[in-house]
């Protein structure tokens, strides 16, 4: 996705309410994931759906937003880049309404598939469906998956999900866990005052053993640490297991453990 032509291309507008490039700065690791996913996305054939699969908090949403910014900067998808959060969707009718809105057909009186067959403008569109796993527990999941497959005939479709989709034309990408080096870099980008001893304890006892190098868990933890209070941090990190509070399902993929800092600060 490089080259002189892309540098001077007119940027494709992003959906301002859901994708803000400023929120995606300081992206750590994942350069190989970005490249592989972009290649798979641009290589999708008509009717294919690319699913980014991974545990909760691993960074699926973050990486697809980063990809949206990258393709927008290169002027790709002249028909628009669209981001749909599936979590608030409660049935197939609402899912179809959201999908139809991408083509300006949310209020169309005729069948939208017939309209697209007869009047599709031929412009390339990217549609990102985030948190698709929430739809797999609905009674109408089969209808929703059928709609998704039809949409892929008229746009490139990128899905984030904790499960692999059982649909025709599916293309899967398994998100890997961060390496401990990447997790440490992420942690220390937010906590810059850790000592050498604390960094060693961080690697040996916390990042992988307790947090599975999960980006969301690291973000939650570092957002609650008081800045500059190294002695208190040293005491805390040395007694980390004592301050674990069991909260089942708080961060999927990590187990029933989450840090609770308010109890000690």
From TrEMBL:
InterPro entries: nSTAND3, P-loop_NTPase. Residues 44-198 form the Novel STAND NTPase domain. One of its GO terms (molecular function) is ADP binding. This is NB-ARC domain-containing protein.
């Amino acid at each position: 996705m490089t080259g002189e032509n892309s540098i001077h291309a007119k940027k494709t507008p992003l959906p301002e309410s859901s994708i803000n490039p400023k929120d995606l700065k300081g992206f750590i690791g994942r350069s190989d994931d970005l490249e592989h996913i972009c290649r798979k996305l641009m290589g999708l054939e008509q009717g294919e759906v690319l699913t980014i699969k991974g545990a909760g908090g691993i960074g699926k949403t973050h990486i697809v937003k980063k990809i949206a910014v990258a393709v927008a900067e290169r002027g790709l998808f002249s028909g628009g880049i669209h981001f749909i959060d599936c979590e608030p969707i409660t049935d197939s009718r609402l899912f179809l309404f959201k999908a139809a809105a991408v083509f300006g057909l949310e209020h169309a009186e005729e069948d939208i598939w017939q309209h697209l067959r007869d009047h599709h403008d031929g412009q390339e569109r990217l549609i990102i469906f985030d948190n698709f796993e929430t739809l797999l527990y609905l009674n109408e999941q089969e209808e929703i998956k059928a709609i998704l497959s039809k949409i892929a005939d008229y746009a490139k479709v990128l899905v984030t999900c904790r499960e692999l989709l059982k649909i025709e034309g599916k293309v899967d990408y398994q998100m890997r866990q961060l390496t401990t080096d990447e997790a440490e870099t992420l942690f220390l980008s937010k906590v810059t005052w850790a000592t050498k001893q604390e960094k060693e304890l961080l690697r040996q006892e916390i990042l992988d053993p307790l947090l599975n190098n999960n980006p969301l868990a690291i973000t939650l933890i570092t957002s609650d640490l008081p800045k500059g209070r190294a002695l208190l941090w040293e005491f805390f990190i040395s007694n980390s297991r004592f301050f674990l509070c069991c909260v089942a399902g708080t961060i999927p993929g990590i187990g029933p453990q989450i840090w609770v800092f308010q109890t000690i600060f």
